[in-house]
Design a protein that fits this description.
Elements lengths: L22 H12 L7 E14 L2 E14 L3 E5 L6 H8 L7 E6 L2 E2 L5 H11 E4 L11 H11 L7 H14 L15 H13 L5 E5 L7 H16 L3 E5 L3 H4 L4 E6 L2 E7 L8 H14 L3
Parallel strand pairs: 3-8, 3-9, 6-7, 7-8
Antiparallel strand pairs: 1-2, 1-4, 4-5, 9-10
This protein binds adenosine-5'-triphosphate (ATP) and magnesium ion.
């Protein structure tokens, strides 16, 4: 949890209140941030989240009372040993998979209380996903894949043409416009990952969830993808990502360290651009080593 001593000033709608965040709320939030006060809005609140798998009658308690919250505009990395429950956590908090117990509040709405249709709409319109196993469709071009979630969404009254133009704008921004008409097997791994980012951003989500978005990339491509994610975060998109790479996590504002389905530690990155990237990475590595990384 983003625990700041005595500073519990988060604007979190009460459970089940389904409070919509208005443009005015956002404006107020911007003003308070400008004022230098730490009164950010909580976009994700996870309380006592539990997930148990039963395989061959054996119970595996993968998530054990996990609690934390994410403020709007944060960039949070989840790290931890293989099998510690990172992907399970990401799937549960993004409504991709159910939980066995606890609550996940997205903008104050309890995901467990939503109908399948409401959950699907929330996920389509307010969340973006970069998950390794969510492959693009191979009978569509890269651009068509990117634009597909916009075609399925009624979030805006944009025309088909406008949606396509927005897809192209995103591709330009991530420097892959030249492969717009290619099939998904006609691009490099880095280009495909950047295309996944474009697709995840097409409906202008509040929160982007990513499971090892740089996992299959070499160092250069990984840096490029992280540059884009940091840029999107700076523009206001909240990001929660799982990574094994301390170099990647060092660019996030906060790191949660998961062990055996529990948050064992939380690291807040030094604020501002005055700390060099190398130093950020070194400091994070020291912290990770203390936790047995
Ligand atoms: N669908 C499933 N059915 C049964 N058990 C599962 C399922 N998915 C995950 N698990 C188990 O849950 C535990 C946590 O898995 P999870 O994929 O969340 O780990 P992880 O931290 O993401 O690991 P990695 O770093 O290797 O990706 C593992 O013991 C795994 O075997
Ligand atoms: Mg995983």
């Amino acid at each position: 949890m983003a625990v700041k001593d005595g500073e519990n000033k988060k604007v979190t709608p009460k459970d089940g209140e389904n409070k919509k965040v208005t443009a005015k709320d956002r404006e107020n939030k911007k003003m308070t941030v400008k004022d230098g006060e730490d009164k950010k809005m909580t976009v994700l609140e996870v309380k006592d989240l539990c997930k148990t798998y039963v395989v061959n009658k054996r119970q595996n308690n993968v998530l054990r009372n996990v609690s934390f919250s994410v403020d709007e505009g944060e960039m949070v990395a989840v790290m931890g040993p293989s099998g510690s429950g990172k992907s399970t956590l990401l799937y549960a908090v993004s409504g991709m998979d159910g939980a066995t117990g606890g609550n996940v509040l997205f903008d104050g709405k309890d995901l467990m209380g939503l109908s399948a249709k409401e959950l699907a709409r929330l996920r389509l319109n307010e969340m973006g996903f970069i998950f390794q196993q969510m492959y693009m469709m191979n009978n569509l071009t890269i651009l068509d894949n990117i634009v597909l979630p916009a075609m399925e969404s009624k979030k805006t009254s944009e025309s088909r043409k406008e949606k396509i133009m927005r897809g192209e704008d995103l591709m330009r921004k991530l420097d892959i416009i030249q492969v717009a008409d290619n099939d998904i097997n006609e691009v490099s791994g880095g280009q495909l990952q950047r295309a996944c980012i474009c697709r995840s951003m097409i409906n202008r989500p509040r929160v982007l969830f990513a499971d090892e978005p740089t996992g299959s990339l070499n160092r250069n491509a990984s840096d490029e993808v992280m540059d884009e994610l940091v840029k999107l975060n700076k523009e206001g998109t909240t990001v929660m990502m799982v990574t094994h790479d301390a170099r990647v996590a060092a660019r996030c504002s906060r790191v949660l360290y998961l062990v055996d389905g529990n948050i064992k530690g939380e690291y807040k990155s030094p604020a501002g651009g005055d700390v060099k990237e190398k130093d950020r990475e070194r400091m994070l590595n020291n912290w990770l080593m203390e936790l047995g990384w």
